[in-house]
Each structure stands twice: as C-alpha cells, then as structure tokens.
Automatic annotation (TrEMBL):
Protein name in the entry: Glycosyltransferase
Originating organism: Ambrosia artemisiifolia (Common ragweed)
One Gene Ontology MF term: UDP-glucosyltransferase activity
Residue stretches making up the Glycosyltransferase N-terminal domain: 10-249
PROSITE patterns in UniProt: UDPGT
Amino acid sequence: MASNPTNLHFVLFPLMAQGHMIPMVDMARMLAQRGAMVTIITTPVNAARFRSVVDRASKADLKIQILELQLALAEVGLPEGCENFDLLPSSAHAVNMILAMNLLEEPAENMLKVLSPPPSCIISDGCFPWTNDVAKRLNIPRVVFYGPGCFAFLCVHIVTSTNILEEINSDSEYFVMPDLPDQIEVTKPQASTWGRGDTKESTEVFERMLVAEKDAIGIVVNSFEELEPKYVKELAKAKDKKVWCVGPVSLCNKSLQDRAERGNKAAINAQDCLKWLDTKEFGSVIYICLGSLSYASTEQAIELGLGLESSNMPYLWFIRHPSEEFEEWLSKEGYEERIEGRGLVVRGWAPQILILSHQAVGGFVTHCGWNSTLEGISAGIPMVTWPQFGEQFLNERFITNVLRIGVRIGMEVPVLFNKLDESKEIVKRDNIKEAIKSLMKNDEEGEARRKRSKVFAAMAKSAIEEGGSSQCNMTLMIQAITEELAKNTTPIQDIV
Ligand code: UDP
C-alpha cells in the first residue's frame, strides 16, 4: 500500500454528543480533502443533523458518506429517538446511553465486514473501546480521538493514574496539579472530570478505554501544537503514544453555509444574524452560548439576563431549552422589548462559528467546552469563562492561567449536565456584569488580552494552512497508518 491517502478508506465512529460529533465530521472532511475515502458511522437522528454538510462535501467531489446503525434504545430503557447526549431526559440516563453504545459492537463489525472498499483505518471515539476489539479482529489499525485538548487530557491522565485526589480531603481546597509545566490550581470536584465514575458500568467502560487506548496506533487531537507545545509533548510522553494535533478543525469550514449549519439547524437565519451583527460596532458585541449540554435554571437565566442588560454592552444571547417560567418572566418584564436594538435573545442552536468570525464580536461568554474554547481562540476573541462540568474547569484554567485570554465569572462547583440541579450555584447578575465589563475594558490589561488572543488566532490559522503544523501532523498520521498497513500480513479482505 503506497503512502497515498487516495488508497485509504477511513471509518469514523464519533460519540453521539455534539462536542464529539462536530469535530469528527470536520476531520472527516479534512481527510476527504486529501483524497481519502471516508465513511462516518452513526445513528439516524445524528446522521440527519450532518446530512446537509456531508451532501455538500460529496457534491464537491469529496468521497464521503454516512452509514447508519440503530441504537438498541428500548433494550436499555431509553425513549425512541434519544440518540444523542443532548436528547437524554437527564444526566442520570447517560449510563443507559453508554450501554446502548456498547451494543453497537456486533452490528458495527458486520457493517465493516461488507464495506467496500474495505476499511484501512478506524478513527473512533475513546468512549467506544469496543471499536478496538472490532479493529483487532478485522486487523484494521485504530486511531483514538478524545474531545479535549492536550492540557486537559494530561490533567485527566494525572488524576486517573495517581492517587492525588484521594489525598485531598476537602472539596473546596485548591491544590496544585502535580507534574504540569505550569502552576495550575484546582479543587477536587473540578479535577474529577471523566474517569472511573461511581457506577460499575462507568468503571468498566473506563478500564476498557485504557486497554483500548494502549492498542491504538496513536491519538488524534483537535488542537494545534503552537497553542500548547509543552502539553502536546508531555501528553505523548505520559501516554507513550504518538499524538497528532490536527486542528483547529473548525477552520476547515470556509463557506457561509458550512459555518452557518454546523452540527444542527441554527435557530436564527444566517443572513438575519449577520445583518444584526453588521449594525454593531467593531469588537463591541458579547456572544453568549453555554454549549450543547448545559442547562440554565430559571433563576440563573434571570440573573444572566439582568447581568447582560446592566453591562450596557450589545449582546447576542443563545439559550438552550428556556423554561416556561423564564419565558413568563421575559414577557412579564417586557425584557426583549426593553433591550431591543442592543440585545437579542435566541432560543436554540447558535451558528457559533459564523458569529465568532464576525468583526462586531468582541467577547465570548463560554462554558469552556473544548470545541467552544478552540473556536473562540481561532476567532481571536477573549472569553468570560463559565465552566459547568466535565473537563471544562480545566479548560478554564488553560484559558485564564496558561493563555491568559479570559476572565473568570467565578463559578466554583461543577454541576451535572442536562439537569435542573436545584443545589446549583447561582452566578449573580453583578458578577456577570463585572466579568463582562472587565473583559471588554480598554485598559492595559484588556488590550493585552485582546492582543494575545489575536496572536493565538493567527497561529491557529497558520497551523491549518498548507505546510502548517496541523497539516504536517495529518500527513504524519496518514504515514503512520500506511506503515501499519504495510506490516499487516492478513488484511480484512482475507479475514471475512
Ligand atoms: N455549538 C453550536 N451552537 C450551539 C451550541 C454549540 O454550534 O448553540 C457547537 C460549538 O460550536 C461546538 C460544539 O457545538 O463546536 C459544542 O462543543 P463544546 O466542546 O464546546 O461543548 P459541549 O457542547 O460538548 O459541552
């Protein structure tokens, strides 16, 4: 097999969560742009979300397709159509979802056996350890993909491979994360991101993930080397694996349509959104979006609304699943009329990268999901950091302490995703207003933050251009796969 990607057929298994599917679909198109054939395997509801982007790519002569598999939802007690983490009735159902995903092993293997041309490489989410067993049985090299960047991934590795958390007795005490190139302080709950979890199922999956990761020929990451050079190196050393940073993958979305329809149908028409932004001054607008899984309680949504209003800045606020009570509050207050012209509230999916790349946007209030973080960085926009769960608190430290391009809103305690958590810490309107004002200030600190953000954005752009580090890493990954295939004496064709 020559080192020519046009001979390769990549099969991608993205985890059914937007923060994992979106970058994988971008990566699929980047591989197809190299001339490789790419098959994305997912479920019907998820396939429908990406159908238009994949159709556009096929029309542009990229060899890319989506194949569908059904999740056995009824078997694990999940309602019909509940095929993505953002559709789960609550975070307590995540474990059922994991069980349903595990049941894909056999149908996925059967699908791969008859795929033509036969697959030459599997790129699958770390949360699908069973793809490693399938890859081994069919003699296909596997590359593993995880959501976060190298900094957070290294932190997760440190806390899951040492006893550091067991030595911390208090949940509010800050400790220094050991063995990191920078001095990073977190609390125990903030550092307890993914890992063994507290159920038998989650522990089993995590242990299986570690075994599967050992067998993978390398780890592909949505990041770029210039952003976190020390962490890329340290992660490769800690994992004893090749780490290929090929991002920011969001920058492969060049056309207006691709930027406006990424991951889901947007709740606002792209032209209307651009028209609204066009009326605002350069760098003046705050964009607020807390990702695909976060949930704001009525009380929190009201505080946010009032905080934004009192900041006196123009703002574009996307809110996922507003509660009925919040809608009642909005109308009773006449909130939207009151802020008309300056602020806009949109319920539902944001065309995020379209918005971030508009010159009127000057600040991003983010929940610090890794994709949003990297998208903010790529657009050169400083951020107000409002982490919620998972590795988001680690990403916050990366934004504020390592890159120094953010202002903390002051969130301390992680919450469960997708859940109205009554005990949830409420961030008050004054803190929201202060964080935004501080971010947008034209003082020396604010200017320095803006300048640093622009430098990282320029680096991101170069990384993804021809000859850039991420393009070179993509080539190295393809070479490694080709070398692995050359060692293979029994290819899949001879097994099935
Ligand atoms: N996203 C979007 N519109 C939304 C919410 C999210 O386009 O209204 C995209 C966002 O651009 C990012 C992904 O969904 O690519 C969310 O991933 P992230 O890692 O930021 O957070 P998660 O949703 O996984 O918590």
